[in-house]
Amino acid sequence: MYDKALNFSLWCDFLERDFIDKDFDELIKKGIINGATSNPAIFKNAILSSSAYDAAKEEFRKKEPKKLYEILATADIRSAAESLLKNFINGDDGFVSIEVDPCFADDAEAMYREGKHLYSTIGMPNVMIKIPATKAGYEAMRDLLKKGISVNATLVFSPEQTAKCIEAIKEGIAGFRRYFPKANLPKTVISIFVSRFDRLLDEKMAAAGLPTGKIGTMNASKCYNIIAKENLNYVKPLFASTGVKGDDLPKDYYVSELMYPGCVNTAPLETIGAFISGDQKPKMPPSDAQIEEFFARVAEAKIDMKKAYKKLLDDGLAAFEEAFKEIIKTLKKEK
């Protein structure tokens, strides 16, 4: 736990084999991070760019490309989970996430099957299966939780997605409790994406005389408040997409601004470095009334949040699918 008094966790939004073998343990031992996340884009950059995977690629070169990817990715996740196991045992998060094939985003059964397969293959209790917050994804989340598998609900942009994730999670936990009434409950995080709103809408905000660098954190706060009101001890809000592009904002802006009680922030290494070297001050989220007043001004400026939610979700799904396909295509060429 980065800040025990606040119950605020800082997770690392980066995994790569050399990093796991060297610096990752040090960040955990120092209490800087107590969890990690991955996604297809992170694995694409790692597997296709780092020589740390060359030996394993050669060893398993006869495998089909997707199976080879799975071998490489699950080995990294297992290694990270082993490093975080002490945190997990001590009730200090200690989770690492791996995402199902993003090409399955509209296929609940395929995501469920692959989620079970990945969890079983990795064989560690502190693994979260990342499932996108789509219509099919809510079903897959529910069914994985019924089996006792922890879930990271990802690509959450809207309050509506947040509410639907909570509904699916509660159903899944209820199903698990029916069959395993005395067992420890699986855990969940709802990954609320932040910075992409500002990159998409800041130009329109500025043209309307509204503050820039604000719509992402206000939307995240709205989703955070929805989760906090449920007061579920097996759900945490997680702020994702918290890296800063360009020099207009401090590098740790989206971590510092969202240092709320009981939440997780997963951030790139550069962002974590900036945050821990700065003056961290816990914050409280704005009230629902303040949030509604802000978004009333946004609506008056003719900024359509529903269109923004749809675009960002569509873009996020497409980007992860493209990254995954590029991994498979490149591994196939390398055979």
Description:
The radius of gyration is 19 Å and the shape is globular. With 335 residues, it is α/β, with parallel strands linked by helices. An 8-stranded parallel β-sheet has the order 1-8-7-6-5-4-3-2. The chain has one domain: Alpha-Beta Barrel (TIM Barrel), CATH 3.20.20. The N and C termini lie far apart (43 Å). Helix 5 crosses helix 14, helix 6 crosses helix 7 and helix 10 runs antiparallel to helix 13. The chain contains 14 helices and 8 strands. The longest helix is centred in the C-terminal third of the chain and has 30 residues. The model has no long low-confidence stretch (mean pLDDT 96).
Mean pLDDT: 96
Helical proportion, percent range: 55-70%
So, the CATH homologous superfamily? Aldolase class I
Reading off the top of the CATH hierarchy, the class is best stated as Alpha Beta
Number of strands: 8
